[in-house]
Amino acid sequence: MASLKVIFLVVDIITSCFFVSMNGFPDTTIDGLVCLVGKVPVDSDVELLILYMLDDLRENTTSHGYNYEVDKTMGKYHYWGNGACNGRLENVDCDQCIIACSNLLRNSCTLSPGAHVKLRDCRLRYEPYEFHGNW
Known about the structure:
By secondary structure, the protein is an alpha+beta fold. It is 41% helix and 25% strand.
């Protein structure tokens, strides 16, 4: 009888872990955060471009297959960005995770000319140079 309880407990733990990660709880544990050295001028074209890039990544990552790449130009500035989510997340969970990334970058890397954050279930990056692949 004791071994049957252990089996049910193990099944319950496995099931709980699976459903928690897939039903409304993206894992937003920080695995990495990098802010490029330096600051862009306040209220400049490059600051507006970065903010626009973050908004675009936040709004479109989920609807573009959980891996959205974009490049944008404003004036003489050209930036590249990428947002990606764990493919097992529900759409709303991917959105929540990307919002958490965006908020973290806005608060921790304010006016940084480039940055990236990797959470357990998603990641977000913008840089003043082109990049590809996993990072």
